[in-house]
Design a protein that fits this description.
The chain is an alpha+beta fold. The protein contains four helices and five strands; from the N terminus they run βααββαββα. Strand 4 and strand 5 form a beta hairpin. About 25% of the residues are buried.
């Protein structure tokens, strides 16, 4: 199954600044539905989408256990190596069978909260 990233509103992580870019994204979406701590109870699972191979990776620890937040250690070694060929990764979430960017997840969380309070 392929997962498609629709529209813009996503940041691409490039290997040269992999960890720094992830930290910057965490900070940018800290108090929104684009952060794991604010959307997990809505069924969002932290994930990465590889634009090169059109492949989705759930966020896991090195031993394969699911991670509640975005962590890099569970990604395949080839994606974590700085000097490997260029990779473009989108940080986001899997919900059902759809991949959401952080921005898309944040927007959907606002809608879901409004619907729940109505």
């Amino acid at each position: 199954m392929k997962y498609y990233v629709q529209g813009g509103g996503y940041s691409i992580l490039r290997n040269e600044a992999f960890g720094k870019a992830l930290q910057d994204e965490r900070e940018r979406y800290r108090d929104t539905g684009g952060a794991s701590e604010h959307n997990g109870h809505f069924g969002f699972v932290p994930a990465f989408y590889d634009l090169v191979e059109e492949r989705l990776y759930l966020s896991t620890y090195r031993d394969g256990r699911p991670a509640a937040v975005h962590v890099l250690e569970g990604l395949p070694e080839k994606l974590r190596q700085r000097n490997h060929y260029q990779r473009d990764l989108v940080v986001g979430f899997l919900r059902g069978n759809k991949f959401y960017t952080r921005e898309q997840a944040a927007g959907l969380i606002v809608k879901l909260r409004l619907k729940a309070s109505a």
